[in-house]
Amino acid sequence: DGGITQSPKYLFRKEGQNVTLSCEQNLNHDAMYWYRQDPGQGLRLIYYSQIVNDFQKGDIAEGYSVSREKKESFPLTVTSAQKNPTAFYLCASTPTQGAYGYTFGSGTRLTVV
Amino acid sequence: KNEVEQSPQNLTAQEGEFITINCSYSVGISALHWLQQHPGGGIVSLFMLSSGKKKHGRLIATINIQEKHSSLHITASHPRDSAVYICAVQGAQKLVFGQGTRLTINP
Lengths: 113, 107
What we know:
The complex is a heterodimer of chains A (about 110) and B (about 110).
Chain A: E1 4-7, E2 10-13, E3 19-25, E4 31-37, E5 44-51, E6 54-57, E7 64-66, E8 76-78, E9 87-94, E10 103-104, E11 108-112
Chain B: E1 4-7, E2 10-14, E3 19-25, E4 31-37, E5 43-49, E6 52-56, E7 59-64, E8 69-74, E9 83-90, E10 95-97, E11 101-106
Parallel strand pairs in B: 2-11
Antiparallel strand pairs in B: 1-3, 3-8, 4-5, 4-9, 6-7, 7-8, 9-10, 9-11
């Protein structure tokens, strides 16, 4: 079955360490997105990519970095510059950017101690 | 003021009750999505609407473009419907999400 795989489901890191969250899709979608979810708030866009080797900052990109070397993969690195990294991170994809039909992953809950 | 507002924020009901969750938005949109998030965190897309009404099983979603309002209804609610329901509006470049409505259905 096609879908998005995010791993790991839970991640713990010490403060000051960079950490990379994985997002892989086998839907042949061009566009991929990373969102952050905090309690009581809506999901907020961190980064998005419309095509391989291209990505754009979202609303809250500071302290994060991404790459898009392959169509299937859009990893997110949470750097030590991110002031408050503990959150739930969701990856999503669409056939093309702005298209209908979002598919979401199951998310990664990151806790920084 | 948030661009997408959901009400209520929390809703507890008994099994079998008719449930309504509301979503109001203030921006121009090309479509509106209703999403379901279970306790594990993964999100499932329930509906995508640009006009009128859609039905899937016990779930019904409606949208009024002129009033910038959408509702999600659940008929004959069941404890397995307990989840967070999220409204998201699709603008030109991205989705804008509401804060979600936490629904708990008691047996």
